Amino acid sequence: MSDEKREGAQIQIRDLHKSFGEHKVLRGVDLDIERGKINIIIGGSGQGKSVLMKHLMGLLKPDRGQILVDGEDIVPLDDYALNRVRRKFGMLFQYAALFDSLTVGENVAYPLVEHTKMPKVEVEKRVIEQLASLGLKNVEKKFPAELSGGMRKRVGLARALILKPEILLYDEPTTGLDPVATKNVDDMIRDISKDTGVTSVVISHDMASTFRLADRVSMLYEGKIVVSGTAKEFLRTDNETVRNFVEVSGAVEMPARGAQ
User: Fold this and answer.
1) How high is the pLDDT of residue 116?
2) 5 pLDDT more than 60
3) Which residue range(s) make up the domain with 41?
4) What is residue 220's predicted lDDT score, i.e. its pLDDT?
5) Are residues 8 and 56 in the same domain?
6) Is 207 within 8 Å of 11 (Cβ atoms)?
7) CATH code: domain of residue 240
8) pTM of the full predicted structure?
9) Which one, 9, 69, 223, 247, has least CB within 10 Å?
């Protein structure tokens, strides 16, 4: 893909509400996910980050609100139409979510087998190429249990990329990894964004990773986005909740209030 990327929001979330019984999780989320950028959503545990991500793929229906993907509201779509939109998405789950009973090659091939009629020989070729592009060679016959945590993440990412999605969702991609493996995953996310132009949406509470990677940062707090902007804009906020969250992490030094 060329370096030229279409500008603007690929996903627009407007006044999104979701409750489970009496528990209100999303209370009017408004957020733009910028096309071709690394968009990171931060927030404490239990603030609804994963619930928000499930809405993006149509796995949950909101109580009210809109989710526009390339201008199309996916909220009223039926399952057939939703499956068409979901083909635009790839997903890297928190712990890679690989099938333990399948080999690495079979795990990565799974989306191609399920969603295409590609010949077996072509599937195997695509799988080997995708794994190699992520620095994984000669692992097709191994099982997930034989791999390190960082390697499992790479295999999960290879599976997420195999259908060439336009949008990649990452759910806490560095959870459970040591600092070296964390930086490797960060580098991978950045390289994939640069090389493919894919729109990246990362759910995270890792502040060091967030400010190493993000083109845009948004914070979800008490069911709403309280601050959203470029990494520099985000760090200049006077919002007390955001400042406390970032400062307590110790990963990034916040500029003084009012600093330009």
Assistant:
1) 85
2) no
3) 1-88+168-251
4) 95
5) yes
6) no
7) 3.40.50.300
8) 0.85
9) 247
